[in-house]
Amino acid sequence: MALEAETLRQFxxxxxxxxxxxxxxxxxxxAESDRMPPELVGEMRALxxxxxxxxxxxxxLGLDMSEEVEVLFELCRTSPAFRSVHGTNNGIxxxxxxxxxxxxxxxxxxxxxxxxxxxxxxxxxxxxxxxDAASLRTSARRSxxxxxxxxxxxFITNAPEASLFTVMARTDPADKSAGGISAFLVEAPNPGxxxxxxxxxxxQRGAHTADVIFExxxxxxxxxxxxxxxxxxxxxxxxxxxxxxxxxxxxxxVAERLxxxxxxxxxxxxxxxxxIGEFQLVQAMLxxxxxxxxxxxxxxxxxxxRRDQGENVSTEAACCKYFATEMVGRVADRAVQxxxxxxxxxxxxxxxxxxxxxxxxxxxxTSQIQQLVIARNMLREAG
Length: 383
Ligand code: COS
Fold this sequence. Notes:
- By secondary structure, this protein is an alpha+beta fold.
- Helix content is 51%, strand content 14%.
- It has 3 domains: 5-115, Acyl-CoA dehydrogenase/oxidase, N-terminal domain (Butyryl-Coa Dehydrogenase, subunit A, domain 1, Orthogonal Bundle); 120-231, Butyryl-CoA Dehydrogenase, subunit A, domain 2; 234-382, Up-down Bundle (Butyryl-CoA Dehydrogenase, subunit A, domain 3).
- The model has no long low-confidence stretch (mean pLDDT 97).
- Coenzyme a persulfide (COS) binds at residues 92, 122, 124-125, 131-134, 178-179, 233-234, 237-238, 240-241, 314, 363-365, 369, 372-373.
């Protein structure tokens, strides 16, 4: 463990209080306004939430994966939009640099990401390259003492807020495979980088995504991540392996919150002269939710521990992401069901979570991509 057990316990208590006292009361207004209050973002900075996973040597808290998921279980007992504010700085936006960046790149960016001074995004997906990430078309060609990028990236989380993008682009036009892809650290503003309008999404209002358009976007030679060509796809896959455990932990946190709300309602709401929680059909929904959330929590903790021990957790990460995100979908559905008509009405917030959690089964690899990764790894290991 990177932290003393007592320090971690105190940190988790602080986060629990922050979620209960500051984030929960703001859930509805953030969703209504689609805007994150700057004072809450400031409080997240002060708590160190932007640098949870960034090594201490670069100004972060340096949590290992086991500690990170414990933090996420607590932090995500609220609208997932709050996690998104610092989610890319801890996850896909910074981890390419942490895992494969040069020492100079680490020193240049990680301290500012850890403090929350700048926001980072991860730009892999394109209009015609989603699940088949290796088919991406964004190009980077050498020009003078740097590179010129052209192409469009789609659904980029935190793009409207970001001033640093990890961009996967094809540096070898002759190589249409993953080997022709390199990763670049592109700073914004840049005259060659434009943003589309923020996307109008089904849920997670307050968290923003947009297209990022590169038009003859010049970046200096040292923007090449790790200083190596042809490594960008592998970097992206390594980042996503980690990201998938992270998202699974987020799903567990949200599920546990929904179970709390479901239980509360089942104890308070009376029908046929008694609380609905006394009816076995309602109890079944509570019990199934609890059992599944517990299974997902145990999977996430196991995968995180294995990763911390240096194991290759590509399969386990995909298993966690697949199971936990499908699980929270079922839990959110049951939460609506237990709440009955009130579950469908905005005032109770349950329908908002139902929409919010739908994204978990899509981003950082759809459920079908997780299945594909799991089965492919199984066949490879067997063969
Ligand atoms: N870690 C390290 N390297 C990896 C890796 C991993 N988890 N997965 C694959 N690689 C390497 C492979 O070893 C291979 O390298 P070599 O050519 O040296 O052998 C290279 O990357 C290409 O791998 P592969 O042939 O498996 O690539 P595919 O095009 O078949 O893609 C999937 C595989 C489908 C798994 C990949 O495209 C994917 O994850 N897609 C989903 C993308 C996604 O999650 N998008 C969400 C948006 S980002 S928020």
